[in-house]
Please model this.
Amino acid sequence: MINLDLMKSISAAFNSRDVDRIAAFFAEDGVFCLARGPESVGRTLKGRETIRRALADRFVQIPDMRWENEEYILAPDANRAISVWTVRGKGADGEELDYQGCDIYTFDRDDKIAHKNTFWKQVEHKDRL
Model:
C-alpha cells in the first residue's frame, strides 16, 4: 500500500545516489520522465535498466545531487502520490542546482513505480513571465 514510509524510502534511495537501490523501486517496465530533455515531457526513460543507467550517468555529472525539504501528498486509492522538494547540487559543468520541484508517481499493484514524472522550476534571470 502506498504510504508515507514508502515515499520516504524512495526519497532516501534517491538521496543515497545508489542506483541499484533506486531502480529496485521501479517496475520492470516502469517509465521515468525527466524534467529536462528534448521531448515535451523532458526525456522519457523506459524500463528499470534504462532508468538505472541514466541515473548512474546523472550522478557522475552531479555527484552531490540531493533532494531536501520533502513533503508528500498521497492518494493510495488511486495508486498515486506526489513528492514536493528542493533539488540541490553542483554539476560537473559548474551549474548550481537549487530548484523547487515535484514528482508525480503512479504505482502498480505491487507498489512499484509504474510512472514517475518530474517537474522543476526554470530559473531564469530575465524580466519576463
